[in-house]
Amino acid sequence: xxxxxxxxxxxxxxxxxxxxxxxxxxxxxxxxxxxxxxxxxxxxxxxxxxxxxxxxxxxxxxxxxxxxxxxxxxxxxxxxxxxxxxxxxxxxxxxxxxxxxxxxxxxxxxxxxxxxxxxxxxxxxxxxxxxxxxxxxxxxxxxxxxxxxxxxxxxxxxxxxxxxxxxxxxxxxxxxxxxxxxxxxxxxxxxxxxxxxxxxxxxxxxxxxxxxxxxxxxxxxxxxxxxxxxxxxxxxxxxxxxxxxxxxxxxxxxxxxxxxxxxxxxxxxxxxxxxxxxxxxxxxxxxxxxxxxxxxxxxxxxxxxxxxxxxxxxxxxxxxxxxxxxxxxxxxxxxxxxxxxxxxxxxxxxxxxxxxxxxxxxxxxxxxxxxxxxxxxxxxxxxxxxxxxxxxxxxxxxxxxxxxxxxxxxxxxxxxxxxxxxxxxxxxxxxxxxxxxxxxxxxxxxxxxxxxxxxxxxxxxxxxxxxxxxxxxxxxxxxxxxxxxxxxxxxxxxxxxxxxxxxxxxxxxxxxxxxxxxxxxxxxxxxxxxxxxxxxxxxxxxxxxxxxxxxxxxxxxxxxxxxxxxxxxxxxxxxxxxxxxxxxxxxxxxxxxxxxxxxxx
Length: 601
Prior knowledge:
Elements: E1 4-7, E2 24-28, E3 33-37, E4 41-46, E5 54-56, E6 67-72, E7 77-82, E8 89-94, E9 98-106, E10 117-137, E11 148-152, E12 155-160, E13 163-169, E14 174-179, E15 182-190, E16 194-203, H1 212-230, H2 240-252, E17 254-255, E18 260-261, E19 284-285, H3 286-298, H4 302-319, E20 324-325, E21 336-338, E22 349-351, H5 362-376, H6 383-399, H7 417-435, H8 444-461, E23 463-464, E24 469-470, H9 485-489, H10 494-508, E25 509-510, E26 513-514, E27 526-527, H11 528-540, H12 544-557, E28 568-569, E29 576-577, H13 583-598
Antiparallel strand pairs: 1-7, 2-3, 3-4, 4-5, 4-6, 6-10, 7-8, 8-9, 9-10, 10-15, 10-16, 11-12, 12-13, 13-16, 14-15, 17-18, 19-20, 21-22, 23-24, 25-26, 27-28, 28-29
Helix pairs in contact: 2-13, 3-4, 3-5, 3-13, 5-7, 6-7, 7-8, 11-12, 11-13
Organism: Sphingobium limneticum
GO molecular function: hydrolase activity, hydrolyzing O-glycosyl compounds
Domain Trehalase-like N-terminal: 20-94
């Protein structure tokens, strides 16, 4: 197994107890996700659902937050990797006295997702002996709950607000202190020995108390399930490992109770350390969901694509087209501030997202591109879905002349070029779907005329000869890196798109990465998805060598991660920024890889 050596010695938390985000890996079960760090601590876990308040929140509250740590007592080196084509994680700790492996999994059952959350951590002795310190600290949900623990039927049962959980462990784990706030313990593991620690939890529901043997067996059963799914991914050759890793990350973000695709698993990880651009991404964005569906279709994950598209169309029918939705369905909740210090004291920490009520015309293009991709893979739209899409095309034809907040959800409404291209894209795909018999043709000719009007408007107003590129919006001297997507969408002639891509590289590039738009370097890091959109654009513009070189440099610059990527990166230091795992980053990697593999998209 190829492993990533994250540090030559014990990963060091800073004076305030923070670690860099690139040291985190993700575990998931289709319902929630946990972030495990390379020093043996699990610092983030929302229970029982992805959008629940966190049970463990040391990521945002390093002094008082909850966590579950299993850490060698002596100085250690660490290597970690996911098992091949799996989301089961292995970490090898090497000390002066021995070597041990920790295997971590958010378990599933033989029939799919379990009706409870089951976090399993198996410690295996490999060489000599290793002494571990164990700490379970129960969080207080930002001061809204006071945890307590009691013994029930021989089990240590904890309560944190509405969450009920069991702290289970093998006989080799020596409890040193057990109280309302958690436990401390120790474990000495010898070569050939194995011990299991686990947390089983739920919310406002009776709780099953499985045996340690059952939980232990489910680690390897979950691994089998992940590998079985990964084997369906349709990609061979030198790019397969990287592509499958990103596909597995996207699979973690698929919220199985509804079929929604969350943008990320965290909230409030800053886009710049000390900045205020901190957002809750535990919602389903139309843009992210649409692009993820397309990525799933490209790698042959038809079931996931179908489930997500069905969910998306039902939300549009129920509450209308919005920028984002709750992962359960319906509008996203409004923003409230959470009383936590934040990652590296970057405030505010928030729950909820205001973007749901923004006007963002690009969502029309995202929805129709997704529907067209679904049909292009040999699938069929039902009559109700076709009717929903036809109404959306009519709406797009009516509103495209209005200003909006653009793809980047900015406070200033403008006639953003990418939003107009999104409207053109929506009507172009609507006409194609109607011609293919997938949509009613009643308004087909009207859609065609508006499509052509939008293109003419963009040609007249949005091209800047002084920039040598399409501008951010008419009259602006700023660039927008998302315009690289216009190449995939098939907009305009190749010369203007090629010049736009060159201008983005020249003006928004920093090393192998790219800022979202002119001036963003003063507010945030480089947006990783933009870099991989640029790779895809170069392939489509017949620049395979430049595309391959750009992809390699970008991926190599993301080390030492084991394949869980954030929203942004600080291009000089290489430090990760923003929420993670970020679906938009991983799906952009998949699109770029599939295009590189094909030579042309």
